[in-house]
Structure formats: C-alpha cells, structure tokens
Amino acid sequence: MENIIDVKKLTKRFGSFTAVDEISFEVKSGEVFGFLGPNGAGKTTTIRMLTGLSKPSGGSASILGFDIQSEIIKVKKLIGVVPEISNLYDELSAFDNLLFMAQLYGVPRTQRRKNAEELLKTFRLYERKDSLFRTFSRGMKRALTIAAALIHKPKILFLDEPTVGLDVVAARSLRNLISNFRRQGTTIFLTTHYLEEADLLCDRVAILVKGKVLTIDTPNALKAETNKKSLEEVFMKITGLEPEVLAIEKGK
Amino acid sequence: MKKESKMWRDNLRGIFYIALKDIKTYYFKPPAVSWGIVFPITWILAFYLRNPGSFEELVPGLIAMTILFSTTAAEAVVINFELRLGSLERLLLAPISLSAVLLGKVLGGVIFGFAMTTVVTIGSIIVLGLHPNFIYLILIIIPSLLVFSSLGALLCVLVKEVFEAQTLLNLPRFLMIFLSGVVYPVSKMPLVLRYLSYVLPLTYTVDGLKFSFSDSSNKTILPYALILIGFFLIFIFPAVKLLSKKFE
Questions:
Q1: Is the pLDDT of residue A244 over 70?
Q2: Which of A53, A74, A85 is nearest residue B92 as measured by Cβ atoms?
C-alpha cells in the first residue's frame, strides 16, 4: 500500500514550549490510523498542522504528495476534517449547512443537493433535514459535522475525538459508520481517548506522549510485544502511566 | 496560468458563499437592522429637533451614518462569535485562502450596508425631492461600504470576545459621528479637531456625499473615491495579517 500521509520531523513550538517534537510517521492508503495519547500530548496540534490550521515550526509533511505548507489548498481539497467540537452553523438547517459546505468546497452545482441528501440519509438525519442545527442533540450534531466533512467526497478523513460526549448508542452507530467508510476505501486519521475504540477500529496506532511518538504498530503487535491483553494496558505501559494507575488501584 | 485562474475562481466562489451565508445567518435580523438603520435615523432626528433647520443639509450625514452603522452592525458576531464557536475554523479548512475568508466576511457587511443605505438614500430623495448626481453617489457609497466593513473586520480581529469587539467598534463610530461633519461642519471646528477629522474616513464619505447632492458639475468626485479606496487597503491588509497570526 502506498503512503498517503508522510510526516517527517514535524515540529510545533509555542514560544519555549514544544507541543510536537520532531515526529515522523506514515499513513497508508485505505487504513484507519489511530493517533493516541494523553491530554496535551500534541494530537490536536498535529491534526491542525496537517490540515492547514496551524503552521509547523519545523519539519515537513505531505498528503497525497502535496506539501502541507506550499500546497495546502490542494491538500484541503482532498481531505475532510471533523474537529473536536461540532462547529456548524446554529441558524442554518441541516440541509443548508451541508449545502453551504458543498458550495465552499466547489462541489459541482448539479451534485450539491444530491450529495447532501445522500449524506443525510446515510447519517439517518433526512427526516430532520429542515431543522436548525441548534435544535439537534449532541449525537445528531456530531453526525452532521461528520457528514459536512464528507460532502466533497474526500480521500482522507481526519477525525478528532469523534465520539467524545456521545451516549453509548450514538457512539456505537458512529463507529459503525467509520468502519463502513474504511470498507469503502477512505483513509481515516483518528484521534481518540477511548482505547477500546482504537483497538476496534484502527489498523495501526501511534502513541504520542509530550509531543513525541513513542511507538507505531498494529494493536495486536503492540499487545504481543508488551505481553498485555488490551490496548489500554499497552498504552499505560508505554506512556509510563502504569505505576500511577496501580498506585491508585492499591489505594482503593 | 490556468492553475492561478482556478485558484482565483475558488477564492471568489468562497468569498461569495461566505457573504451569502453570513447575510442569511446574521444580517437582516432585528438587531442588525435596528443598529444599521433605526439608530442613524434616530440620531439625525434628535440633532434636527434640537436645532431645526434645513433637513436636506442633514441627508449626507444620515446616509454616512447608515453606511457606518450598517456595515459594522453584525461584524463582531460574524467574526468574534464564529472564532469562539470554532465556526471560523470550519471556513479556514475549506480550499480557499484566509484572505478570501476575511473578504467574504467584509462582503457580507457591504451587501447588508448597501441594502440599508439604498433604503435611506432613496427614501430621503423621494421624501425631500432631492436631485443628486447618482454616479457620484455610487462612487462614494461603494468605497465607503468597503472602508467601514474592513475597519470593523480589523477591529474585530484585534480582540477575542464579542463584547470587546462591540466596545472597540464604538470608539471610532462615535468619534467619527462628532468629528467627521455628520452634524457639525468640519470647517467650523477648532484647527486641531479639523486636522483630526482629515484622518477619519467618514469625513471623506460625508464630504463626497455633500458634493453628490450639490451642484457640482465643474468638479470631480474622484479624489474622494480614491482616498476612500486607500483607507480600505489600509484596513484590510493588517486585518488579514492579524487573522493569519491567530492561526500560526
């Protein structure tokens, strides 16, 4: 499989603080790549750099062969981004939100309505297509935000904590959708706090701590390597959080 | 060459749809309409009632105030509110430049301002039976709309919160009402204030509008229009730079 995302020594500094420290990794075409790490590890900062929302302080990265700094507009045409917060427009209906995104991404006029209707059906929101975004539940808002990121049929989907704040049913339905997109060949770059979710969805995961990538491999290979049963245990061991957790458990 | 023209087309499309979305979402709502049109009319009426004279003389001031207030009526919401909610980031993820995003925001204010100004101008002309030079009017109104919408954008990107932006916007708004000849002629002001009025863009809007309503066949409006375009460039470039700094 060809590399679709190629990151080399990517760095982001905010003054004297280094949020992302010379990280390097590749994401292959069609895979679900999990980017895991505790809060403040640099996951969102990395996504922001790869999607053109923030300028790298050093290093380089390319997406489908296009440089994220000099060719960011080309990159943006090929990617869909679901940020951590559902940031569509409260005063627009579900349909109008998708239509606006289609207009912004230059989806041909004849395709705009069709794509929007298809996505509303896929995400089971068609019945509520004329309802304002602000009237949606958190799960529905999340679903519509993902639909908006897919309106131009991107080749890569960046999902930043997609299931945060969702109830069990909404989270499960979203995970099923992610699996479906993977089956259809969309490459997915996923950050999540939920390690079971990563175990279930990801072909490979990278574990990031304090801005550095500590390891990259398949969840099964990591489990075998560390002699652990779950990705959560692997994560605790690799990030050095295991003694902390054991101490808390002993305290109980 | 072909790639550049495609990029331009993408940016122009982005500017147009962002403006359209903002108009649909934020403008033509009661707060923006009242701020943009009711407020200037009330002010002018208040000045007129205090010092009754020829209402015709106040028309350029009324139009200038409508331009100023309508273009900046919803800019704090359009920029700062979206920054806070993260919706502005959503626009920046689209395949268009950051300048196009900001120009889309400015264009929203310009379109709304144009609608409000047209209502006030046509209303004044019909009610008072005035005979302005319409080409001159357009040559002053369009650049003025761009100037004040970009000034609003510049002040909004300087701060984070909506209330901070509203407060900051009020400073030049009220300064210009008193010092730009809206109600009190610049020529009758003390020398220091007269000099100060020359660095305020509304002065050129008011002068240009007065010129458009007077018998001015032997003069040209062009210097006023060019100065206003200059102000637009002075405001829009730093606004783009500051917004881009927020996302470094």
A1: no
A2: A53
